[in-house]
Known about the structure:
SH3 type barrels; six-stranded antiparallel β-sheet; 38% strand
Amino acid sequence: MAAKKGVTLAELSDGMAGTIVSVDLPSATRTHLFEMGISKGRAIRLIRRAPLGDPLEVEVLDYRLAVRVREAGAIRVRVKP
């Protein structure tokens, strides 16, 4: 699962953690996520998925937030061993 450039946040299983490698989203969306703490080099953990699979609950900077699967698919993560 840990490819050279990582996997997407959407591909992680519940409880998995890693380091953000890149955020490949349009500028406005990327800025919004950056303001919430999602940026390159930051530790992130997938807590769980909503009952219907969207959104995802993630933990970053010691707090939790919801990220849509569409956005999570554009966030690449290097999985911690």
